[in-house]
Amino acid sequence: MQIPRIGVIGGGQLARMMVPPAVALGVELHVLAETEGSSAAIAATMVGDYTQFETVRDFARTVDVITFDHEHVPLSILERLEAEGISVQPPSKALAFAQNKLHMRARLAQLDLPMPAWREIHNADALDEFIAQHGGVAILKTPIGGYDGKGVRVVRSSADASDWFETIERLGGALLAEEKVSFTRELAQLSSRNPSGDFTTWPLVETRQENGVCSVVISPAPNANQTTLDHAAHIARTVSEGLDVTGVLAVEMFETTDGRLLINELAMRPHNSGHFSIEGSVTSQFEQHLRAVIDLPLGDTSATGPAAVMVNLLGVDDSNDFVRNYERAMGEHPSAKLHTYGKSARAGRKMGHVTVVAENAAAALDVAQAAAEVLRRG
What is the pLDDT, as a whole number, of residue 378? Predict the structure, then answer.
């Protein structure tokens, strides 16, 4: 059998974390990185601009299937690759919904999936009307390009978004207004699907945010009842099949004060909420993604222990890269698994993470946070 060659567009930490399972699976991993010295430099076989068709096509011709570290490759490029017979997983028709939040909301509505109330906004009057209908406040998002809290605002009048209206054409020609949901916590359901239609899920997890960026993930989500677990898995399957997603899918959700689940965001790739799975699951999200995109049988996603907690290492300044105290953190907290992403330091940047598997979530969180604090002292 010919060794499969998987090409990943994007040289970030997600591509970096695909390297170990690729070695274990015996597949070749090629990476098209944006710059020299990227997080995934160890596997970067090409450096170039993923917005240039010729660059992406040259890269695609060296592999058997294309997949992604991020969702920003222009759809027109992916569609041209597919027209030339190149396998793109997930396909462009699925990524269209990940790249545009308005398209996502419209498709999820067609699938009768639970979401916050929303409206496509073209002008200030429409936004003011929506705000008035939803208690005097709304969440406003740019439909393209936003992530980790970027491209999202709490607004109480159209004046709060005057700059976005001035450049609305560059933002996709419209904005997305959503009701400001009263929720008790944020949850994420990770799943995977291959082109043959096989489907698996990981445990539902609770995510905690810091300045709009995920800071803690707890698996399984504490105190989630069976109805919630079944509903979350059903939502993930409906999204995956309804949008024809292949590979890993993350569905980020709000759990409301009355117990409902409302879809917030989608990601069609390995996701921050699933990093715990490297140590916390029989099959990690990274191994599963590789299996899925080349249509191999999917792996067992059972937990390796009663609870797993992941703590993100978020940059605090421009000097601490979180490796100076690595040895001390390992010595003081031997059960903690430390991951660094090989990035230059920057405030708020995801620089790495710590995972702990333990008998309960509280114990795992204590150790993970303690190890992270040692690393932060830099």
Answer: 65
